[in-house]
Automatic annotation (TrEMBL):
Pfam families: HMG_box. GO terms for molecular function: DNA binding. Residues 1-57 bind DNA. GO terms for cellular component: nucleus. The keyword Cell wall biogenesis/degradation does not apply. The lineage of its organism: Eukaryota, Fungi, Dikarya, Ascomycota, Pezizomycotina. This is MAT1-2-1 HMG domain protein. Residues 1-57 form the HMG box domain. Keywords: DNA-binding, Nucleus.
Amino acid sequence: KAKHEETVARNPGLSNNQISTLISSMWATESNEVRNAYKDLADRAKRQHAVENPGYRYK
């Protein structure tokens, strides 16, 4: 999601499927440091959601 807009701008004319494939390849080559940074962001968002929505359960 973070790279989608930039990737589309750099690759005009590619379909959304092609953009997704390209971004997937980029993710596969990211360092553990970058991957961990995104995992930390997701963990923070999850904790924040739990605080804002106590008792929430996905159905």
